[in-house]
Amino acid sequence: MSKKNIPLDIRFETCRIGVGKRTFDIVFSLIALIVFFPFGLLMALAIKLDSKGPVFYVTQRVGTGYDLFDFYKFRTMFKNADQQRSQLSDMNQYLISHKKSGIGFSTISVCPDCIPGGKTCSPILFIDGVEICENQYLRNKREKLLHSAFFKVKNDPRITRVGRIMRTIHLDEFPQFYNVLKGDMSIVGNRPLPLYEAEKLTTDEWSYRFLAPAGITGLWQVSNEENLEAEERIRLDNQYSMVSGPWTDLLIILKTIPRLFSFKKKF
Fold it and tell me: Is residue 54 part of a domain?
């Protein structure tokens, strides 16, 4: 990910976790790792017996201020599953959900900024036989980019048998307490994104989320919506960047606990 593509206010912003929040993160993650260790050994054995490959899935993620770090999870997919992502692009739930709304990316030709029957707000373009002003064309292009940024597949064929069980009750996420202990992440924050997602979120309206700490759980994970649209995810991430504080974090943690046993994957 090229640093030259990062907005200046994010690139040079000092993004630090407060002393109180960092202390809580260290204590909480230490307790979680100690208590969870015996279960972790059992899961490691189950993963090795179920399929070939390493116990841990380690990949680079983009966190606070667009910083890169090694992100840890228990492996829930078959080996080399990342290489198959392009083959499943048509099954991306974010794109499918948007298409079901009946609004195509290239069919929105009416610009709200143009005066009906009057002067247009920008030069007129002809795209695929459709007359559209340049501003609306760029707006459509940004919308398509946003919806293609996030990737989620329902009934993903790359997931192993043991992996599907672990994902259902969120056991695959526990190694991230090691990330918290290292200081890469916080307990509460905005989810760190894979490179292919983060590199598409560099405009001012989308990049504000990177001012907040990267976290295991956050606002959109505890939302009431089961399948959030891409715009709503970004809105909640940006909202957390503006309202984060001790009481907000405590409320999110309290809401997260029952969701761990709700058998719905939102992390």
Answer: yes
Are 253 and 178 contained in the same domain? yes
The mean pLDDT value for 241-251 works out to 89
Q: Is the pLDDT of residue 21 over 90?
A: yes
User: Residue 67 — φ and ψ, nearest 5°?
Assistant: -75, 140
Residues composing the chain: 267
Conformational region of residue 36, where left means phi above 0, alpha means psi within -120 to 50, and beta covers everything else = alpha
Q: Do residues 113 and 121 touch, judged by C-beta distance below 8 A?
A: yes
For residue 120, give its domain range: 93-149
Same domain for 113 and 237: no
Helices (H) and strands (E) in the chain, counts: 10, 7
Q: Give yes or no for a contact between 188 and 249, defined as CB atoms under 8 angstroms apart.
A: yes
* Residue-level pLDDT at 102: 45
Q: What is the DSSP string of 193-247?
A: EEHHHHTT--SHHHHGGGGSPBEEE-TGGGSS-SS--HHHHHHHHHHHHHH-SHH
Instruction: Dig out the tokens for 164 from the structure.
Output: 């599907």
Burial of residue 4 (number of CB atoms within 10 Å: 0-12, 13-18, 19+): exposed
- Cα angle at 161 between 156 and 165, to 5 degrees? 90
What pLDDT was estimated at residue 99?
A: 52
Report if residue 222 sits inside a domain: yes
**φ/ψ (deg, to 5) at 214:** -75, 140
pLDDT of residue 49: 94
At 62, list the tokens: 């983009």
Q: Are residues 31 and 139 in the same domain?
A: no
Per-residue pLDDT, 12: 43
Q: What is the mean pLDDT of residues 21-39?
A: 94
**Average pLDDT of span 144-150:** 58
